[in-house]
């Protein structure tokens, strides 16, 4: 779900909390060594997300925030802010010349540069949280007779 979060609205906060959970507390953030990435350069997005990119030749930036049941990808376009809400069960990550996040028929690709490499620990933590979430819903193994 893609939301325009330029102005904080109570109903948007509730929608985000329902989908990916409430933000971590300060103590939890400290134990996890942070829950947000540094900003990264967006190199490409899916055609249905082109509206959130700068039209002029400015660099587009995005950052990721961990939540208990998913992530928030925050993208800035001029003076507007957009938040892409992705629950863990829809999240797919690819590491191809940077990183690519896919969900809900959309994708965002981050360039492989210094800002991306600074976020390696964050992506490791993100994958660990996704695995921990997926282990809760272990699929039964099929019995072949």
UniProtKB/TrEMBL annotation:
Protein name, as recorded: Arginyl-tRNA synthetase
Provenance organism: Winogradskyella maritima
């Amino acid at each position: 779900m893609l939301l325009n979060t330029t102005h904080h609205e109570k109903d948007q906060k509730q929608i985000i909390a329902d989908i990916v959970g409430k933000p971590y507390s300060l103590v939890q953030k400290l134990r996890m060594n942070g829950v947000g990435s540094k900003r990264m350069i967006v190199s490409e997005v899916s055609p249905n997300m082109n509206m959130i990119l700068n039209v002029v030749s400015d660099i587009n930036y995005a950052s990721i925030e961990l939540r208990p049941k998913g992530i928030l990808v925050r993208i800035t376009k001029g003076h507007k802010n957009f938040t892409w809400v992705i629950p863990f069960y829809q999240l797919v990550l690819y590491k191809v010349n940077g990183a690519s996040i896919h969900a809900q028929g959309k994708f965002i690709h981050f360039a492989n540069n210094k800002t991306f490499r600074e976020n390696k620990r964050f992506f490791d933590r993100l994958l660990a949280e996704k695995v921990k979430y997926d282990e809760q819903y272990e699929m039964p193994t099929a019995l072949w007779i």
